[in-house]
Design a protein that fits this description.
GO terms for molecular function: zinc ion binding. The radius of gyration is 22 Å and the shape is globular. The chain is built from 14 helices and 6 strands. The chain is mainly α.
Length: 363
């Protein structure tokens, strides 16, 4: 067993730590493997970790970072100062976020935040494996971009208290972390979650149909199941919608996301306003990222997340435009602050690299 000694540890402390670990292992030989696995999964979920450090080969990999969940400030429900003009300048970091070293090598920028990474560092962290390495290389320097491991995980937006609430719901509904869900599992979970605090409450037929449509949006490749990271991101977004005021959500937007929102508003709007129909249509545009797969998507300034034409979550862009541009809505207009508030949750939902739509817009 190898133990990494920090600067603050003495040799005696390390030896004591090793001895305690050996005694703990020897004292519990009868612990069931499945129970231990489930406990480890819950701990990873609680701490926002995807992979345990001991699962890595320490001789060739870095230790994954310890994610610290955010805390809400007392004034985060007050309107933030996000003006339409002047525009904000977007400048990426100069040094790799992992090794904190600048080199002449190509750095991969995150499309959400300003962090940049060496591909070698990402490999040693275990975040680039197999085909994902090729995809990152191809996407990182395109207009579409790539989300780093911080921004790709929407669950990391939750505070400790919010994560406790979500974990409690999962445990009560007997959801096992790290396991995929079928449509039947997903709908059953939504029924159980709806009954929280009211045992007589259940989903209506319309709500059940909506849950089925959301499942299809989370399963764009028609595999018949939703992967755990996609399900977790979806549930994290629903909890943010439920517990956070829109002003608090606006404070989560990065400078790149604010700039994309400005570009969309200015391109679609008329001066200082935008039609309500265009505002609704913008909710879908955040998911238009893979132009090769969705050539009918003409919004080039909002490549923040994916929605393919073949996705069961939606048909062609043209049919969506017709459905989202009714005559009665074209006469109503919204201003910049309203546009931003109504779109913020969908901008956040488009962060992950996954092809799933983690919060399907209405319409």
């Amino acid at each position: 067993m190898g133990v990494l000694m920090s600067k603050r540890q003495t040799v005696e402390q390390v030896q004591k730590q090793v001895q305690e670990e050996k005694e703990a292992e020897a004292s519990a030989p009868g612990v069931q493997e499945e129970s231990s696995s489930n406990r480890a999964a819950w701990e990873r979920l609680r701490d926002g970790r995807g992979v345990e450090p001991e699962e890595f080969d320490r001789t060739s990999r870095f230790t994954p970072p310890a994610f610290i969940r955010p805390t809400r400030k007392l004034d985060d429900d007050k309107p933030p100062d996000i003006c339409l003009e002047p525009r904000e300048s977007v400048v990426n970091d100069e040094m790799c976020d992992i090794c904190e070293v600048w080199t002449a090598e190509s750095l991969f920028p995150c499309r959400v935040c300003t962090r940049v990474f060496h591909d070698g560092c990402l490999r040693r962290m275990g975040y680039l494996q197999g085909d994902s390495a090729v995809e990152v290389t191809e996407m990182a320097h395109t207009e579409t971009g790539w989300s780093c491991y911080y921004c790709d995980n929407l669950n990391l937006l939750l505070t400790e208290e919010e994560m406790y609430s979500l974990t409690e719901t999962f445990q009560r509904c007997k959801v096992i972390p790290d396991c995929s869900l079928t449509l039947e599992d997903f709908v059953r979970y939504r029924h159980q979650a709806a009954k929280r605090g009211d045992s007589t409450r259940a989903l209506s037929d319309e709500q059940e149909e909506q849950a089925a449509r959301q499942f299809a949006a989370l399963d764009p490749e028609h595999r018949g199941h939703v992967e755990w990271p996609d399900f977790l991101s979806h549930e994290s977004l629903l909890l943010l919608q439920q517990l956070r005021p829109q002003n608090s959500l606006l404070r989560l937007l990065t400078v790149k996301e604010r700039e994309r929102a400005r570009a969309t508003f200015l391109a679609r709007g008329r001066g200082s306003t935008i039609s309500e129909a265009e505002c609704h249509q913008a909710r879908h545009s955040w998911f238009c990222k893979r132009l090769a797969e969705a050539p009918s998507c003409s919004v080039s300034i909002s490549h923040v997340g994916p929605i393919a034409d073949s996705s069961p979550a939606g048909s062609s862009s043209q049919s969506q435009e017709k459905a989202l541009l009714p005559t009665e809505q074209e006469s109503r207009f919204v201003d910049w602050p309203t546009f931003l508030r109504e779109n913020v949750i969908y901008i956040l939902a488009a962060r992950p690299n996954s092809g799933a739509i983690h919060l399907k817009p209405p319409g």
